[in-house]
């Protein structure tokens, strides 16, 4: 769909549509952004108003937390081939600032972080299972912040991600030495770490009542009992933040990839010989890329995205104005503020049943798991039903995000973390920032800004200087994985790897991409 309207002086208005199938608490959602258009150019302030319609299901707000949509706005020249979409800052920050409108839904509010690289659209009134639909949401964008002039011809695109608010507060990391390399308080004290603030943590080798590091013995990982300091700037999970409700999907990756400049695309191509090495389906990954200018597509946009390396994840998060999550934040997201349960999974118990059977028919985003009590995808078993009729390449690999949630799911049945974040245990491994080596501990929690590297040969890398894997020549960006690791297990792993506090690979360094690895991002909250 397209329309025309004179703005700069000529603006081609296009609809940017992002459809995905998500869950909040225990229900499946649909996020739809449509009818994106440009209005009200103001050359004196270098701004333009971007309007669009938005809807999603099962939104909620309680005294504890809420869901939200993280929205980033990009402008691009429609005459450029291929299209490069550039993230633009909005004009003002804070709660419901000037130039921002929630549109027709009075039950919403807008919060803009201080860096103005995106906005949170979120419920303003308490309630559960609300269907949100708002027309004419308006965001005022500084078009000069992304390199456009008064006379440039541009289109607008709005990208949305469902997020969950993780409130400020104390929590525990570790599960009484039940899981492999679970953090404890001393050589004779199995109690978990209490995370009581974002202040410095002095890690030592006391017998009791301290903070003691337990190693899984990965290459480059500090040994058990090593003394070190976790700085105040390393995000520990105490301070409030937002987390992506789901792992990155194939549809979201395609939207990202097809927005990149020409020279960056080969470095992020998931079908090359550094990734899955094919444009055909491999372990249920359906991404294909083709053409002289390289563009990508997917047949399963709501399926969790596999075959991404740490460098790929970092690039996506920088582009989306998010950041990686730390291993301590992972435990906060999953466990919440309650006492640990021995060997618990993300849903707070140690009850687990693997998925075996998908509902019949094409997996179009509405498919469900039909075997009784299934609440996770693990164990390397072959699936049946759904797309598996197409052959062996469809029988092992990730499922769509939010697949275990139904209208009558409990937290355990939906496989949900304490706050409503999904698939933290199983499906695909989560890529995290470790505390297990100095490179990970150097992470200071900076956010991406939508701008990737342009140095020849290194185009399309994340360029935050504190992120794990940053090159010695910072302008080259994130070129390695030192300081990263994995948590949460995958479709291929034994159940023990899915435990919240299992740290078997929390400091495992790998620059490779794997069919059982995905990722998600977070963003520190700087509001009141």
Secondary structure topology:
Elements: E1 2-5, E2 11-14, E3 18-24, E4 27-42, E5 47-61, E6 67-76, E7 86-88, E8 94-95, E9 100-101, E10 108-112, E11 119-123, E12 127-142, E13 155-166, E14 171-173, E15 193-195, E16 201-203, E17 228-230, E18 241-244, H1 250-257, E19 288-290, E20 295-297, H2 310-319, H3 327-335, H4 411-414, E21 430-433, H5 438-441, E22 484-487, E23 522-524
Antiparallel strand pairs: 1-2, 3-4, 4-5, 5-12, 6-7, 6-11, 6-13, 8-10, 9-12, 10-11, 13-18, 14-15, 16-17, 18-23, 19-20, 21-22
CATH fold-level label of the largest domain: paralog of FGE (formylglycine-generating enzyme)
**Quick one: how many beta strands?**
23
Largest sheet: 8 strands, antiparallel
Mean pLDDT: 93
Radius of gyration: 22 Å
Portion in helices: under 10%
Could you give the order of the helices and strands? Answer: EEEEEEEEEEEEEEEEEEHEEHHHEHEE
Query: How many domains comprise the coordinates?
Result: 2
Report how far apart the termini are.
Answer: 40 Å
Low-confidence stretches: 1-28
Shape: globular
